[in-house]
Amino acid sequence: MSCITFNLAIEVFAAAIRNSELQGYTTPGTGEKLIASLFADDASMFLKADDKLSVLTKVKEDWCVVAGAKFNLSKEVIIPIGTKEYREEVIATRKTTPSGDLIPQTTNLAKDGEANQICGAWYGNETTDATPWANPLSKIDGSLENGLKCNPTIEGRRHLIQMNIGGVSQYLTQVQRMPENIEKRLVKRIRQYAWADEEKSPVALDTLQAPINEGRRGILDIEARNRAIDIMWLKEYLNFGPERPTWAYFADEIFALKAPKETLEHVDRRVRINPLLQSWKTARGVNIKIGQDLRSIIDTAQDYGLQLGGITLSKEAMREMPIWYHREADPKIRRLNNGSISECLRENHAIRTVGQAEMLAKRARNPRHRNRQTDRRQTGEDDPSEGV
Question: Is the pLDDT of residue 213 over 90?
Answer without folding.
Answer: no
